[in-house]
Design a protein that fits this description.
This protein is α/β, with parallel strands linked by helices. It has a domain at 13-191 and 226-234: TIM Barrel. The chain contains 10 helices and 10 strands. It has helices at residues 29-39, 53-62, 83-97, 117-129, 143-153, 171-180, 199-208, 212-222, 234-241, 250-257, and strands at residues 5-7, 13-15, 19-20, 43-45, 71-76, 102-107, 133-139, 159-163, 183-187, 226-227. The strands form 2 sheets. It has an 8-stranded parallel β-sheet. The protein has a two-stranded antiparallel ribbon with strand order 1-2. Strand 3, helix 1 (29-39) and strand 4 form a beta-alpha-beta unit. Helix 7 crosses helix 8 (212-222). The radius of gyration is 18 Å and the shape is globular. The termini are far apart. The model has no long low-confidence stretch (mean pLDDT 97).
């Protein structure tokens, strides 16, 4: 099955559909990564905070897929914000993964109370310019964070990864990203099952003969979002990948859009200030 690709604002291409490795034990991660690649995924979304970067690198080396065919993301954790600390944290990530470059490196949270994301971003710019990272971006950044970042550095993030699902459609934030030329990537795209029983989802599932999870992932795809569902289960991995060959109607898309109630399953980026170690 051909993977749809997104062209980022730096000219690089990223698979629209990927899989995440959050909450997977380090020792289990190599097998999950191999299974994901065997299934057809070519984007693996990791982070220092997930505690399984060693397993991520090992899984890539064990897989029967060339490294240059896989788009690998990691994220800088909150206790490493600041220019020099970010450079050291990136070195630690590369040591754990055993990779010679990342395809995408993100600032995991803005932590506005800490007020270090500008200097952190300058470190990521340096890493990109040195060729150690192909693309750089952010996660959980709101409009004010992005505006300041761009105004003070002149560099627009390639990606903004935000919590996004039918209960939190993030219409305004998606529009901000679009206006700035930033790709929106959805984390927790299934909303932890929050919308699974909604008629808008179950009716579309019945019509298409697909699962409710597949309907929601297809909703992300048709909105032009990059989406990174997570599973360790090989059957669920296959189900998550099999969302590229059916179509939701315009009415179904509108009905799912209407499920928005501003419900977050994770922290609010404007107030989240956890700086604990990984």
């Amino acid at each position: 099955m051909t993977q749809p690709m997104m062209t980022l604002n730096d000219g690089r291409r990223m698979p629209q559909l990927g899989t995440g490795i959050w909450q997977i034990a380090d020792e289990d991660t190599p097998l999950v990564v191999r299974r994901a690649l065997q299934t057809g995924f070519r984007l693996i979304d990791g982070a220092a905070a997930y505690g399984n970067e060693r397993g991520l690198g090992e899984g890539l080396r064990q897989a029967d897929v060339a490294r240059d065919e896989v788009f690998v993301t990691s994220k800088l954790w909150n206790d490493a914000q600041g220019h020099d600390a970010a450079l050291r944290a990136f070195d630690a990530t590369m040591q754990r993964t055993g990779l010679d470059h990342l395809d995408l490196y993100l600032i995991h949270w803005p932590l506005p109370a800490l007020d270090a994301f500008i200097e952190t971003w300058k470190a990521l710019i340096r890493l990109r310019d040195e060729g150690r990272v192909r693309s750089i971006g952010v996660a959980n950044f709101h409009e004010a964070h992005l505006t300041r970042l761009i105004d003070e550095t002149g560099v627009v993030p390639a990606v903004n990864q935000i919590e996004l699902h039918p209960s939190l459609t993030q219409t305004a934030m998606r529009a901000v990203n679009d206006d700035l030329g930033i790709a929106t990537q959805s984390w927790t795209p299934l909303g932890r099952g929050d919308s699974f029983a909604a008629a808008a989802v179950t009716d579309a599932a019945a019509r298409t003969g697909r699962s409710v999870a597949q309907v929601i992932l297809r909703w992300h795809i048709q909105h032009g979002l990059s989406v990174i569902p997570k599973s360790e289960n090989p059957d669920r991995l296959a189900e998550n990948f099999d969302v590229l060959n059916f179509q939701l109607s315009d009415d179904e898309m509108i009905a799912i859009d209407a499920l928005d109630r501003g419900h977050r399953t994770g922290p609010d980026p404007d107030t989240f200030d956890y700086r604990g170690a990984i």
